[in-house]
Amino acid sequence: MLARVPAGRWTTYGDLAQLIGTAPQPLGRHLAICTERSPAHRVLAYDGTIPPGFRWTDPNDRRKPEDVLRSEGVSFPHGRADAGRRLTAADLKALVDAGV
Question: Which of 14, 37, 39, 41 has a CA-to-CA distance to 62 between 20 and 30 Å?
């Protein structure tokens, strides 16, 4: 499911969790330890901020997730990802239903 979130878009732990039938906290814990979590930088906190515990799979990767998201077309007005670029649970479901 996470791989279906396209560049330039983002979703929340809550939206993704709702779609797969879990809660945001266990999903976040899973993403923190899963090595196959690309593109986890596109999953943000409910308010469009980067989760404080975010880490790249590669411990040597020093990029800021916000910089990567900006390079993909997501702006951060007032320190939060542009809400117009967010994919809700319904949007994610539509991607799945469309086979994207």
Answer: 14
Give 2-98's CATH code, choosing from 3.40.50.9100, 2.40.160.10, 1.10.10.10, 3.40.50.720.
1.10.10.10
> What confidence score (pLDDT) does residue 94 get?
93
Report domain extents, the chain. Answer: 2-98
pLDDT, tens only, 41-78: 999 999 999 998 888 888 899 999 999 999 999 999 99
